[in-house]
Amino acid sequence: MGRRISAILSHEPKKVGGIGMTVKVYLLVETLVGKTLDVANTLRSMDSIESADVVTGPCDIIAVISGADMNEVSNLITGKVHAVQGVVRTITCIVVNNGKVLATR
Questions:
Q1: For the chain, which domains are there?
Q2: pTM for this structure?
């Protein structure tokens, strides 16, 4: 059998004031039944949240968050996102590369 080649790719985080952000996360959000659209709209209005898309699968929303450092991102998630009415649980997935090929086999 031939060799299998795989790569992990990610988009560059948005720039604020011409300076690239150093931390980007994908936030998987589970919501109460009937609250998904309200939660997504609230998340979209928050600074540092690039997008909040309603999806199917094990979570209801996937949000993309960028921040200057992990402290900033953590404070946003624990201080603001978790306080949104209708948010049940979140899973934070930290991006570990900047859009270049991370690994090949």
A1: 19-94 (3.30.70.920)
A2: 0.74
